[in-house]
């Protein structure tokens, strides 16, 4: 007796089902997925395509950084816009024009960014936003707060969102991040790197509680896509990331003032956090933060996804050797060249999808040099191998300089960035009355204090901050 599965009809049916399954797989289509935890391009007819940033502007409701805004930026600051802005790498914003207004009016604001430490060292995708932040700090000469959702906050974020990672490991991995950030040359007197695990408390924690009260569970689910199976820590975590956007979270820096806004440079995937921040900030008596969004540094395999620490061959790490950099780019970097050298010489390549060329847009400030590479590649005059060699040289030089700087960072250097209480800082700020003053911050008998000196005088008033109250101690000579 013949088994049913062996009959000709059964085999035909099985083949038809298999054929249908294959067709269904190849015709799979779904939109791109951009969240604070996942980034992947859309799938069209079974093939993943590059991330559509124009669609993201429409989806998130942000504004494009256009030529008019770039022109105003240069006029207001006196500085040529950073190559990241000129080339559309930082491509989108919320209220950047308001920050330029404040700069013109000599009103205070600050920068806020963060880092979620992963196992091991940062990769280039992590580093480039800090490179841009450092430039912004130089241009505006303003304070910068860096939340380490790791030594600080990624401890908790990575612990909450990454299964299999212990809290202790997350903390350990993030400690090295301070050295890497310090190596980029931020101003120690105007930069505060803090850990959520170490810093949460006092006014910072008060703001977290106020924020948590302003966000319902249904709102968190709608904004972040949380489900009933997610741990409650995930739902609470956005409150911790929102808190640094409020100046009153840092009484040591801003004396308890609530009216100082911040500018947040971040990847476009982080916008949901701060869209929510903007929704609740006015209700809590704080100004809305401004944002400037970046595109993702593509993975070595192409612009369908971003670099990932968990996939070593998609990324170039700050600790990579010269040989590793060369090997990764030669072996793994996606090429926009033709299939053969003959065809490439005949038809040229496509620099718009060529990863080595795209990387150089992030590292080479010389617009004319890049244009020559772009045009030469399109005409087939520059080969894929030559483009990769240019890229290898540029990144090797960048990381060699960075590694030299990192090796010179001492433990004492890192404490300057992470411990406000260890020394006295002086910075130029604008008072409520608009009078330029020097503010020195420090500790006195275990209490926070600020010494305020009216422009040019050598007599100052010492104020002691106890919780949110201020006690005037008196004048002193210094």
Short description:
The protein is of the alpha+beta class and 478 residues long. The protein has helices spanning 8-26, 53-60, 67-77, 83-86, 96-104, 124-140, 154-161, 167-182, 196-199, 202-214, 217-224, 232-242, 251-254, 271-281, 322-332, 341-347, 355-363, 367-379, 384-407, 411-418; strands at 33-34, 39-40, 43-44, 47-48, 63-64, 90-94, 110-115, 144-148, 191-195, 262-267, 290-294, 298-299, 302-306, 425-430, 436-444, 447-454, 459-466, 469-477.
Describe this structure in words.
This protein is an alpha+beta fold. It has four domains: 1-30; 53-295, Rossmann fold (3-Layer(aba) Sandwich), CATH 3.40.50; 320-407, Tyrosyl-Transfer RNA Synthetase (Orthogonal Bundle), CATH 1.10.240.10; 424-477, no CATH class. The protein contains 20 helices and 18 strands. Helix 15 runs antiparallel to helix 19. 36% of the residues are buried. Mean pLDDT is 79; it is low at 1-10, 12-27, 150-161 and 422-478.
């Amino acid at each position: 007796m013949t088994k049913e599965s062996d009959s000709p009809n059964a085999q035909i049916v099985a083949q038809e089902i298999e054929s249908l399954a294959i067709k269904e797989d190849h015709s799979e289509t779904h939109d791109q997925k951009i969240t604070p935890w996942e980034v992947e391009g859309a799938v069209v007819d079974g093939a993943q395509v590059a991330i559509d940033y124009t669609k993201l502007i429409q989806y998130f409701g942000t504004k494009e950084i256009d030529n008019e805004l770039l022109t105003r930026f240069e006029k207001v600051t006196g500085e040529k816009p950073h190559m990241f802005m000129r080339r559309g790498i930082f491509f989108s914003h919320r209220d950047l024009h308001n920050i330029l207004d404040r700069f013109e009016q000599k009103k205070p604001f600050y920068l806020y960014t963060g880092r979620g430490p992963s196992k091991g060292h940062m990769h280039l995708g992590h580093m480039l936003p800090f490179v841009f932040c450092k430039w912004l700090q130089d241009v505006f000469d303003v304070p910068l707060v860096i939340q380490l959702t790791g030594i600080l906050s990624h401890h908790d974020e990575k612990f909450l969102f990454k299964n299999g990672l212990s809290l202790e490991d997350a903390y350990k991995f993030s400690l090295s991040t301070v050295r890497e950030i310090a190596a980029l040359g931020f101003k120690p007197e105007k930069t505060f790197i803090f850990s959520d695990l170490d810093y949460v408390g006092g006014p910072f924690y008060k703001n977290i509680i106020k924020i948590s009260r302003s966000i319902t569970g249904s709102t968190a689910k709608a904004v972040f896509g949380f489900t009933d199976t997610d741990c409650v820590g995930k739902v609470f975590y956005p409150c911790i990331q929102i808190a640094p956007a409020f100046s009153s979270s840092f009484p040591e820096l801003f004396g308890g003032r609530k009216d100082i806004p911040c500018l947040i440079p971040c990847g476009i995937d982080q916008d949901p956090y701060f869209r929510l921040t903007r929704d609740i900030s006015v209700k809590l008596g704080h100004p809305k933060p401004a944002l400037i969004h970046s595109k993702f540094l593509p993975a070595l395999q192409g612009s369908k996804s971003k670099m990932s620490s968990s996939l070593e061959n998609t990324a170039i790490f700050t600790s990579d050797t010269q040989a590793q950099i060369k090997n990764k780019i030669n072996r793994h970097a996606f090429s926009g060249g033709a299939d053969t050298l003959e065809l490439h010489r005949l038809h040229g390549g496509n620099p718009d999808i060529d990863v080595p060329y795209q990387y150089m847009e992030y590292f080479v400030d010389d617009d004319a040099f890049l244009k020559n590479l772009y045009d030469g590649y399109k005409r087939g005059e520059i080969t894929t191998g030559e483009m990769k060699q240019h890229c290898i040289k540029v990144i090797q030089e960048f990381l060699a300089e960075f590694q030299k700087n990192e090796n010179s960072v001492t433990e004492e250097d890192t404490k300057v960035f992470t411990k406000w209480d260890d020394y006295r800082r002086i910075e130029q700020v604008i008072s409520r009355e608009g009078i330029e003053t020097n503010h020195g911050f420090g500790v006195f008998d275990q209490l926070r204090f600020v010494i305020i000196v009216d422009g040019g005088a050598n007599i100052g008033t010492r104020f002691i901050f106890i919780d949110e109250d201020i006690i005037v101690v008196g004048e002193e000579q210094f």
